[in-house]
Amino acid sequence: MGKAKPTYWNGEFFKLRLCRGLKQVTTLTLIMCMLSVFTPYFTVHVNADTTEPPNGYWTDEGNYNTSWYNSSSNEFTINSAAELAGLAVLVNGGSSDFKDKTIRLGANIDLKVHKWTAIGTLDYPFRGHFDGAEHPISNIYINNSGPYQGLFGFISEAEIKNVGMIGGTINGHDYVGGVVGNATNISYVTNCYNTADVTGTGGFIGGIAGDSSTVTNCYNTGRVEGYENVGGIIGHISGSVENSYNTGIVKASNHYVGGVAGLSSDGRIVHCYNTGNIIGNGRYAGGLVGKSDFGSIKYCYNTGTVEADGNGVGGVVGDFKTGKELCYCYNLGEVSGSGEIGGVAGAIGWTNPVCDSYYMGYSMGRGGKEDVEGQVVPLVESITFENNTIGVNSKAIINKEGDNTAQATENLKGDDKLGPDFNITFDGYFSEDESIAKIDGNEV
Fold this sequence. Notes:
Layout: H1 11-20, H2 26-36, E1 75-78, H3 81-92, E2 102-105, E3 109-110, E4 129-131, E5 137-143, E6 152-156, E7 159-161, E8 164-172, E9 176-177, E10 180-184, E11 188-190, E12 193-194, E13 197-200, E14 203-206, E15 209-216, E16 219-220, E17 224-226, E18 228-231, E19 234-242, E20 245-246, E21 250-252, E22 257-258, E23 261-265, E24 268-270, E25 273-274, E26 278-280, E27 285-286, E28 289-293, E29 296-298, E30 301-302, E31 306-308, E32 311-314, E33 317-322, E34 325-327, E35 330-331, E36 335-337, E37 339-342, E38 345-348, E39 354-355, E40 358-359, E41 364-365, E42 383-386, E43 389-392, E44 396-397, E45 408-411, E46 423-426, E47 434-435, E48 437-439, E49 442-443
Parallel strand pairs: 1-2, 2-4, 3-5, 4-7, 5-8, 6-10, 7-11, 8-12, 8-13, 9-14, 10-15, 11-15, 12-16, 13-17, 14-18, 15-19, 16-20, 17-21, 18-22, 19-23, 19-24, 20-25, 21-26, 22-27, 23-28, 24-29, 25-30, 26-31, 27-32, 28-33, 29-34, 30-35, 31-36, 32-37, 33-38, 34-39, 35-40, 36-41
Antiparallel strand pairs: 42-43, 44-47, 45-46, 46-48, 48-49
């Protein structure tokens, strides 16, 4: 398998080089300078114990405590693992869904003594407000063949905030997340992090949430692995993910895998980044998003490697054929796959707005064919599609290790899309110097 091997610079040199070209590419350079210093202000935590607890479940009789609950009250404080398990017993048993009620943690929680049962089920979802109050929850252990696994299993019209999951293991089938398995009906997950390893044998697997409508200010450092719809932050998003990042390895044994989201359905990904390696054994793998259906991706970047066996492999997004907007993004990671490969987008449609997106490197598929399917996004800073035409707004920055005399000539979208005579050609050496992009021989 061929791979793109970009030149890695330290952060200060990278910012200096980008800012140095400000007079030439004002908008793009300003955005890249901003992104190069963008880092959400979170504390990184080290994984804790991942061994299986020997003493049954927290929800077993005698292990939980519900004495803190009073049906006439609207606010509660939980101070122990047994009391947190009592919340699972109350919700899962149908005693209360905690709608319009608030639960706060008053102390750090360690779950290592027993196996955890997720709070909320499909039949009895959690509907309240849960505030971790920045008290970490450590050593969660779930090994369940069923769906809806995480600290919370199923929530609806709910809010989860200020929750930190340190270490542990979460294994399930579908809808598995470090914080919540499935968050439906305009639920919010805010200011949360996870360092536990998350695994699902099915789909909708994420470091923070398996499926959700809104995720904000969250990060994941644990390994995330599933069958399909697998993301470092969320497996599937239909709302928005903002100000979030992933550093863990993300792997799908089938389709749709990304550093932030595996699949975005009319979703909005803004101010996010990924540094973890992305591995897919099927179609649609991206540094940020595996596949975007009618979604937008803005102000994001990736530095992790992206590798998949199928088509649609991109440094930012794997498949953007039906995406809405891809702007102000860049990728520094290696990208490799079998077809439709791009340093920014693996596959795009001719009507998709793509603007001010950047790639330091080049992409290769098996057999060494550069940029399989002729995707031009990896090599051009700004591309817009309108009325079957292409507009390239600035010079292309191209890097390649090894043979610096190679040239690349790409057919933009193929005979059936933009016509057989429409080509974009990059003349000159592949190096750290700027190469001039030409369309049909005319410098742009």
